[in-house]
Amino acid sequence: KYRAGHHSTRMATYGGIDLGATNIKAVVGDDGAAVIGRDDRPTPQGPTGVAVTEAVLDALRAACGDAGVEPASLRAVGIGSIGPFDMAAGAIDQPANLPDTVQRVPLTGPVSELVDSDRVYLHNDTNAGVIGERFHAERNPDDMVYLTISSGIGAGVCVDGRVLDGWDGNVGEVGHWVVDPEGRRTCGCGRYGHWEAYC
User: Fold this and answer.
1) Which of 125, 170, 123, 176 lies closest to 146, judged by CA?
2) Sequence-ordered list of residues with C-beta below 8 angstroms from that of 67, at least 6 positions apart, any chain
3) Neighbours of 79 (CB within 10 A)
4) Residue 108 in contact with residue 80, Cβ under 8 Å?
5) CA distance 151 to 189
6) Is 142 exposed, middle or buried, given 0-12, 13-18 or 19+ CB atoms closer than 10 A?
7) 7-65 pLDDT, tens digit each
C-alpha cells in the first residue's frame, strides 16, 4: 500500500467516489486499476445537501492523501451515487433516503473545482456497477441487469452492449415501482406502496 509522499505523481491517477445514503467511499487508482489510496466515512444526514457535498470532497482529499497525490493531479473522477439526479446540473435532487432537509447535493461542479478538471462523470450507482461489469469483468456481458438492494433499491441495465441511462440518469429507479397498490407503507420519497418501503 502506498503512503503519502511515496507515490510518483508522474503516473496517471484516477478518482472514484461511491456516494450512498449510509456511506461515502473514495478511492484513487492507477493506470493498472490498482487501488493506491482509499477513504470510507458515514454519509452526513444533513443538515443540508452542502454538508454531503463537503463530506464527498473530504473523502476524495483523504483518499488522495492516502495515495500521496494531489487532487489536481487526478486525470478523471467517476462518481457512482444515489439519486434521483438533475444531470444537467450534476446534482442529486431530493434524495429519498436522506432527511428532507437534504434537498439538493451538488456534485460534479465542486468535484471539478477540487481536481481542476472537467473530466468528472456522474452516474447512478447501479449504472456504475453495470459499467464495471460490462467493461472490466472477465465475461463483459452485452446484456445484463445489475440489481442493488441497500439503503435503496436500484437497477442498472445493459442492452446490446449499451448501458441505459435515460435522459436524466434515473432509468433504473426500480425501488420506486409500486408493489402494494393498497399503499400501506410510505416510501422515503413520500409516496406509498413502493418496493423500497418494504425492504
Assistant:
1) 125
2) 2, 4, 7, 13, 28, 36, 37
3) 23
4) no
5) 13
6) exposed
7) 444 689 999 999 999 999 999 999 888 999 999 999 999 999 999 999 999 999 999 99
